[in-house]
Amino acid sequence: MDSVVSDAARSVVSPFVEAEEDLRSWQTDRTRAPIATKIVVAGGFGVGKTTLVTAVSEITPLQTEALMTEASEEHDDLTATPQKLTTTVAMDFGRLTLDDDLVLYLFGTPGQQRFWFMWDDLVRGAIGAVVLADTRRLKDCFPALDYFESCGLPYVVAVNHFDGSELFDPDDVREALTIPARIPVMIMDARRRISVIETLLSLVRHALDETPE
Ligand SMILES: Nc1nc2c(ncn2[C@@H]2O[C@H](COP(=O)(O)OP(=O)(O)O)[C@@H](O)[C@H]2O)c(=O)[nH]1
Ligand SMILES: [Mg+2]
Fold it and tell me: Among 74, 111, 118, 199, which has the minimal tally of Cβ within 10 Å of its Cβ?
């Protein structure tokens, strides 16, 4: 598309315009517009959703963490994560640019059951979801699995391996959760950027396979 800005105007150096070399190729190459995708990160309470978004986001993740109080004790089970002092009240939000032209917007679901009403809004426009699982509390991810199965949103299952917990084979987890063969199941570490990126790329590939354009 022709730019409405004339060449003469463009050649004026403004202190407010970033130098060309500071720009990413998709910001200068008008034939390559970045593809923005929305990804939902789901899973039970304390499974590592906030950790995952924080590990990869290039913007300061928007978090709505609140200190846990005695009032939340009866709602949020801390048996497996006694060191957890905060909880995500609404959701996590982060952004990750891959390969200069694929921008992933990550939306972490609030883990608590009382926020179920937000899910229909959260998944609108999403290409897929990562369902995080903790092998010590596998059943916590059933609600998320059921939800994505029923609404038809492509998803992958990522087992967030916690230190000190038994390391399972992806196939054992698949069997325990009765995940269909076409759904990728992987072991990852939500604290490690590379590990999270591998999981997200696997979701993007899977979503493209499931919903070819
Ligand atoms: N050892 C270990 N701890 C983790 C891992 N992922 C998250 N955590 C810790 O587990 C707790 C719960 O994680 P958080 O991201 O807040 O869970 P959320 O409720 O799903 O957002 C935090 O104290 C994290 O530091 C992991 O892969 N390994
Ligand atoms: Mg959280």
Answer: 74
